[in-house]
Specification:
single chain, two-stranded antiparallel ribbon, mainly alpha, globular, 9 helices, 2 strands, 5% strand, 218 residues
Length: 218
């Protein structure tokens, strides 16, 4: 129990210290191309291609980008900008929800919540073939080494979001699940703790205009 409270205090201290971080402008890049990641998600069914593309039917630019993501035509490093951050929110949401990761088997599966299917991040995902829980942590889109998983676990506990005040380690909404997927992606591409933390906060600033690191907490 003492260790639990100590961890909470340490996380709170880290969040306080990060309150002095200045977010720089510019696109968030993964550092490496996505390859056929989107194609894998379509083939697995966690993304229904037609449902996903229908969201961008009235925006030719975003629809073209969505098609490239889902068809695996991604030779350039991933860049997330304020303009495409909504598209990437949905793409990364599917990644975080569908990719097998121990974090999905932790708090959200606690019986006191009545099952992981009752959260916004799961019940709200309607862009799959079949139900969201048919894909919950069921696919191996990204394989992490033990060290990479430790990084995802550590950093995800420090990235909070204004909407729910929870960390990405408890991804109960779409932003949390998408952030988990993004951290997995970064770790798999060789990013370190500092880079993952900075890019996660910058991405949050796109999803939550006016976002300040100090506005988040435990």
């Amino acid at each position: 129990m003492k260790n639990k409270y100590l961890n909470i205090l340490l996380i709170g201290l880290l969040v306080f210290l990060l309150g002095n971080v200045t977010l720089t402008s510019g696109p968030v890049a993964s550092g490496m191309p996505l390859g056929d990641l989107g194609k894998q998600m379509v083939e697995s069914g966690v993304i229904d291609r037609e449902k996903f593309l229908a969201l961008y039917a009235r925006n030719p630019k975003l629809k073209k980008e969505a098609e490239q993501l889902l068809d695996g035509r991604n030779s350039k490093p991933l860049e997330i900008t304020p303009e495409n951050s909504g598209l990437m929110l949905n793409f990364l949401w599917a990644l975080g929800l569908g990719n097998s990761n121990p974090i999905l088997e932790m708090e959200m599966m606690d019986p006191r919540y009545g099952g992981a299917q009752n959260f916004a991040s799961t019940g709200g995902w309607t862009l799959a073939r079949g139900g969201a829980m048919e894909h919950y942590g069921m696919h191996q889109f990204i394989s992490l080494s033990g060290e990479e998983q430790e990084l995802v676990d550590k950093v995800s506990r420090t990235i909070f979001r204004p909407c729910c005040k929870n960390s990405a380690h408890f991804p109960d909404c779409n932003h949390g699940m998408a952030m988990l997927g993004y951290l997995e992606l970064l770790a798999s591409r060789g990013a370190g703790e500092k880079e993952m933390t900075e890019k996660a906060h910058l991405l949050n600033s796109y999803w939550f205009p006016g976002y300040q690191v100090s506005s988040c907490g435990v």
